Amino acid sequence: MRVAVTGGAGFIGSNFVRDLVGERFAALDVQHVVVLDNLTYAGTLDNLTGVLDDVEFHRTDICDTQAVTRQIVGCDAVVHFAAESHVDRSISSGLPFMRSNVLGTQSVLEAAAAAGAARFVHISTDEVYGSIPVGATGEDAPLAPNSPYAASKAGSDLVALAFARTHGLPVTVTRCSNNYGPYQNPEKAIPHFVTTLLRGGDIPLYGAGTNVRDWLHVGDHGKAVALLLAGTPKEQVYNIGGGHQITNLQLAHIILDELGLDADRVSFVPDRKAHDARYCVDDSRLREEFGYRPERDFAEAIRETISWYSDNRSWWTHD
Ligand code: NAD
Ligand code: TDX
């Protein structure tokens, strides 16, 4: 299989590329990997250290349909990760989210169809369902996004599904929960908490810290995408859960404990606007059809992740 990966210099995309060129997804029989990324503040070639020579990299804006088409000709599958991804940034400045996430997705879909790709995986998020106070959301739940980021992702899902219906491109939409692992931009909660503590500051917790997130290791996310790519999905939309739901305050205490710091190194700060109380997806569709199970144990993988940020200071200090 020849695979094109958009957003492959970002957090999840770079972890996925690393596994694509490694041994982990042998079932895909990967022959060639094309990575497209315009290296925004969130993307860096440092994330591809050690594998850059194994891929064909293009610094390309996904909204440039002609360039994307040219660069992905010959690819069997496109895995579309590229997006503006941070909720807080979407609150202070939403337009780049609409451009890259909605228009960008239409552009990559057009390019994939023009280049003759046989498969398209659109990476979306559990945030499109909005806040889930109790229970878990299935794939048929209504879309009810609350942040400009989530609205742009919900828009991109509809764009992708409409393109599939109109033009017959086989599209799979995945909606996963919060990812964690190495190479995540320190604007996101886990690396933000760890790097702030390592710099001597306190964890800034929004509101009362009672919001719940379901944590999915980035390698398990990649595995789920590889299962979908290797198979013939019966459905168009698949949730991917992490199976580990905790409050942000519990998360803060786990990190403090692991770093051997006092529990009072938490500072409660004003809440995020329209802060979703809880996300929780029902991923039984993926589990039953593909035998998907998250492999990583949270307690072990969060320890490994915290150590990664402690051991790779130059990656986040840029010294
Ligand atoms: P990220 O911000 O770390 O990486 C995004 C990458 O896309 C960056 O390398 C950036 O340079 C690139 N990009 C952005 N706009 C672009 C454009 N116009 N042209 C080309 N490249 C562009 O994000 P991430 O956390 O790796 O998320 C990847 C995908 O997964 C996103 O679609 C996001 O919505 C989705 N997602 C993320 C999470 C999470 O917990 N991080 C959870 C669910 C879904
Ligand atoms: O400083 C902080 N303090 C804090 O309390 C930050 C950065 C976050 N938080 C809280 C907000 C959330 O409840 O931690 C939780 C996680 O925050 P983020 O890492 O910003 O993630 P979230 O808003 O849940 O969205 C993430 O998961 C879904 C990704 O950033 C999205 O791209 C993905 O779609």
TrEMBL record:
Residues 5-305 form the NAD(P)-binding domain. Pfam families: GDP_Man_Dehyd. NCBIfam families: dTDP_gluc_dehyt. Its EC number is 4.2.1.46. GO terms for molecular function: dTDP-glucose 4,6-dehydratase activity. It catalyses: dTDP-alpha-D-glucose = dTDP-4-dehydro-6-deoxy-alpha-D-glucose + H2O. Belongs to the NAD(P)-dependent epimerase/dehydratase family. dTDP-glucose dehydratase subfamily. Keywords: Lyase, NAD. This is dTDP-glucose 4,6-dehydratase. SUPFAM superfamilies: NAD(P)-binding Rossmann-fold domains. The keyword NAD applies. Its cofactor is NAD(+). PROSITE patterns: ADH_SHORT. The keyword Lyase applies.
